Amino acid sequence: MMRYCRHCGKPLEPSARFCSGCGQSVFALPISESVPVKPVKRRKKWFVPTIAIVVVACLVLGAVLVWPRVQAARWTEWLRGSMDEEVMADRPASGQPAFLVTPAEGITVSGEANALDKKRRFTAKQMTDQELFSYSEKNAADESVHLAGFTLDAGMKAGERFDQPVTLTLALDQLGIPESICQSGKLVLTHVRADGVTEEIPSQVSDGVMTARISSNSLFIIKGVTSGVVAIRGILVRRKFFGFTFKHDTIFRSFNLGSTYKVYWPAAMPPADPTEVDRIAQRLDAVYASYGIDMTKGFEQGINALSVKKSGGWDAANYKKSLIETISKDPEYKACMDILEDQEWVRKHFLPAKVAVIIDCLELAEEYLFEANRGFRRPTHVIDVLVAGDGGIDWPEQHGRDSFGAAVNEVGLNPYLHLNANKLIIDALGTSGQQLAVISEDNMLLTAVHELFHIVQSNMVTIDYKDRRWFSEATAVMLEREAYEYFKATEWIRTGEQEISFTPRDRYGMCYLSSYASPSHWVSGERSFDDYDMHYGYAAAYFLEYLRDNAYRGQSNRFLPDLMMRYGYASDTTGYSSLVSVLGGAPANVSKAYRDFMAQPRPEIIPLMVRRTVKGTGDYASLFSSRSVPLSRETPFRDIETRYLPLSLTPHLLNITLPAERNARLLVQLGSDAMQQSDWFQLTASCDADGTNRKTADRQGYSVLGEISQSGPVVLFEACSNVTLPSGGLNALGGGYTVLLLVQPEKPVVSFKDERIIIDVPGKSALAKAGHVHQVQYTVVEPDGTAHQFRVPVDKTKLAIDEMEVNFNTTEPGATFKFFYTELVRQDKGKESFVSGPDGIAAEYSVNMPTGIFAGPAHWQTLKYKDDKAVYSADLIDPCYVYVTALDDDQLRISIGRSEADAASRAQVCVYDDEYGLYSFYDWVDDRYACYEFMFSHNEAGENMVEGTVIFYAEKEHVNSIFTPLESFKIYATELRR
Question: What is the DSSP secondary structure assignment for residue 25, as one 8-state letter?
Fold first, then answer.
């Protein structure tokens, strides 16, 4: 029968939970009621014996799993929380009042306000004894027998559910089930859905009344679960997982753990005491045989066949009913039941050792998760649990070879659990062996909690849609950690964090590349990986924990139940709207929380992103391969396009190449668009190998994001905390920002002339040519460290400064001056503040030669023309002065004349000539070609001496020719002592 959306009327798929047309929930789930908190403890009586030793008792785990000695008060308070501070979700309200109806004798249906989507009329019809018998012939089970059946009709279409579960109350005696049967064994309620699938409903029986919470109408069957060691065949034929199907002749044993689980394990797993179990089995077989029941095909088929035979086929139903009541009163049968109700006997004799451990884990998981503690709503069906990995049932590799368990949610079937007995270590020898046993059991307990929570989640969405998988895993991983802390404090778990097998979320922090909680925005190739959404969910738990501890307004222990409750009501299966709701309903709260989350160091995320971005190795490395930008001295600037994917962290790799022994400074300027100028966008850079130290870019102008000392990678991180796409959608994504690499400049060109220092750059850098550099700053550092700075426009880089301005003319011997320059970038357009690159390589000028004044006789001659006649003059100047200033080891400033003023006109920088061993200068000076040659020595008294010549020619070609110099000095002088 076709279902239709009750909001918009569109036809629905049979298993759909949300309408594909309007997105509204097809049904809603109930709100968990607040009940007093109880510490996780063992029940006094947690099972009702089956008539098939499909029974178990939850006893102590022997010497390995100990009773909880510490029920820490802080953990009890953590579980309890404060309902007064809880931020409750908006609950879908239909406006329907609470109700209580009795549609048939012995059948009562009741519900709270808003349980029904509309006013409904309930009708019920009980199956006749013959109808029930005929039904049992076609649907016989090995370990149970049909006792009563009825149809309940609330006018619901196939697949519909009540907005909230309603309570079904059944007076068993009025349905034909006598008290003796109620007291002799476990009764279960099964629901036969409209699609034919049978599901067991959790129920309780007290004083002859059965109660259960149901979510839909249709056919209901009450069964009596018999007790006895019977082989169960065919029961799991439909339980497929990853292509594995059980054969009809596969033999299992089973038991009901309260009303929450039904556990199956291979019969090949031996009971703890096979001899004792066989003894009780033989006693029960004798009881059945005494009544003529053939158990080879199971209890119900045997009793049905006997009933047909004894009644001649005319009144088999009544004969069967009478026979069941007779058996339930049989003293030997009741004696066997007393034994099977003895928990110590069940533990000591019946349960396989590994199954016993698993049972304890399941019970602890149940008591931790549901109403009394964490407050999650119990599933509306009994959970089938298959123990595999032992007893001839291999653990499927598709579940993961090392996994302890898995929850399976198949289309058309209720979710169920697989638990891996192969991972349990039992009866290990030695201290190390016992420790491994403890670790294996602690891991099984955490697995039981994690996977049972997946069953809770599956109750909210009937199909595992791909877009909800991340949310399912993130919340389960978060719960796993919370459960560990609780069970560790109460000493149910004794394994430390380093040894316990947590879900490996620490491997997948790089998945924050993807838009958080929005799989529709995953545009980097994530969907090409089958398990990406699952692994993303593992890592996504980090942010959920941050929300719990920093952004949630209620008690932290209530965060996850509150979130899941809201998820149950939301039409959005991705979980995003539930996050918004749990933080108060404002998307800005999610945005701010994500921004604050990413502003922290995040060692669980950043190093993994750096590794994949830089090295290109590891899980999902291909998602990061296209995010590389080269930077070097030749290509020192790039405009990088960015993505504005909601709630994402995007890395960009800068592959930086520097000349040898050079450093650089990395500058970034954000774009001017509204997104980059808002708090929603944050750019950081990391120059570290592990990416832990990040520096944040300023919102306005250029900012320095890193000092680069060698070639290598730098990773930029774009954190977007916007919760929606910018207008235009994915096709309109992206702005841009500018990255500059200011490489350390070369040595400046330094020369000296006329007591002035001339400084210039050796050539414009690529940044300067492209217009990114606006000024050049020269720095002159005196020997005592005093720095003088001079700025010039980038288009007029030559600078001339007086020597006395930097005290160059009073330099002492042995001192060193340094000259370097720095490129300056205007910090922001229209402003006169600048950001500097690294200081350039210094040109050093050391004063290691004598510096002083020399005096002595000089032979002077000159040639002048008068009336076209050459007039030659000569003289002996005594004293004549030579002024020497050492610039460095190879350069001296030398001037010669009758006085200091006279000498200044002839001052030049002479460079040491290794070939001739003298200081020389040859060049044009004031239209005359000058030749300087000087040598330094010592006289017999050890005084510094200088000997040299200064000659001026009319033409360069006259040097060393027959032409007479225009003027010349030849001097031999001694240094004056002052």
Answer: B
Note whether 840 and 820 are within 8 A (CB): yes
Query: Could you give all domains of the chain from N- to C-terminal order, each with its CATH number?
Result: 1-468 (no CATH), 749-846 (2.60.40.10), 852-975 (2.40.128)
Please, are residues 359 and 436 in contact by the beta-carbon 8 Å criterion? no
Distance CA 321, CA 291 (A): 14
d(CA 405, CA 391): 16
Helix or strand holding residue 858 (H, E): strand 852-866
- Which residue type is seen at 866? K
From the list 476, 566, 452, 573, the residue with the least C-alpha distance to 86 is 566
Tell me how far the alpha carbon of residue 759 is from its chain's centroid.
Answer: 54
* Dihedrals phi, psi of 729, to nearest 5 degrees: 75, -160
Long-range contacts of 246-250 (CB under 8 A, 24+ apart): 250/393
In angstroms, rounded to a whole number, what is the distance separating the alpha carbons of residues 494 and 141?
Answer: 42
Alpha helices in 272-371 (DSSP H): 274-290, 299-311, 316-329, 331-341, 343-345, 353-369
CB contact at 8 A, 356 and 426: no
Determine contact, residues 106/171, Cβ cutoff 8 Å: yes
Q: Are 906 and 884 in contact (CB under 8 A)?
A: no
Rounded to 10°, the helix 129-138/299-311 angle is: 130
**Predicted pLDDT of residue 245:** 58
Closest CA to 801 of 825, 783, 819, 824: 819
Contact 858, 877 (CB under 8 A): yes
Q: Which residues of the chain have pLDDT under 70?
A: 1-93, 226-249, 410-413, 461-465, 728-733, 813-814, 847-850, 978
Amino acid 731: pLDDT? 60
Which residue type does 524 have? S
Is residue 906 within 8 A of residue 897, CB to CB? The reply is: yes
Angle, helices 331-341 vs 274-290, to 10°: value is 150
d(CA 314, CA 643) in angstroms, rounded, equals 78
Give the max Cα distance, the chain.
165
Query: Is 640 in a helix, a strand, or coil?
Result: strand
* 305-311-316-321 Cα dihedral, nearest 10 degrees: -100
State the Cα–Cα distance between residues 550 and 545, nearest whole angstrom.
Answer: 8
Q: What are the Cα distances from residue 645, in Å, to 281, 639, 976?
A: 65, 19, 79
Contact yes or no for 737/640 (Cβ under 8 A): yes
Residues 281 and 53: beta-carbon distance below 8 Å: yes
pTM of the model: 0.75
**How far is Cα 923 from Cα 929, in angstroms, rounded to an integer?**
6
CA 613 to the chain's CA centroid: 16
Q: Is 815 helix (H, G, I), strand (E, B) or coil?
A: coil
Residue 574 amino acid letter: T
Q: In this structure, are strands 928-938 and 869-888 parallel, antiparallel, or unpaired?
A: unpaired
- The rounded distance, in Å, linking the Cα atoms of 473 and 451 is 10
